[in-house]
Amino acid sequence: GTEEDDFGYRLFPDRNKKPQSFLVRSLFTFHNRCQLMLRMTLDTNPYAQLLLEAMKQSGCTVFNDRHFSCENCDGCVSGGFDSATSQIVLCQNNIRHQSHMNRVVTHELIHAFDHCRAHVDWFNNVKHLACSEIRAANLSGDCTLMNEIARFKFGLKGHHQACVRDRAIRSILAVRKVSKEMAEKAVDEVFDACFNDLEPFGRIPHSKTDAKRAYRDFQNRDRYNANL
Question: What percent of the chain has pLDDT over 70?
Answer without folding.
Answer: 79
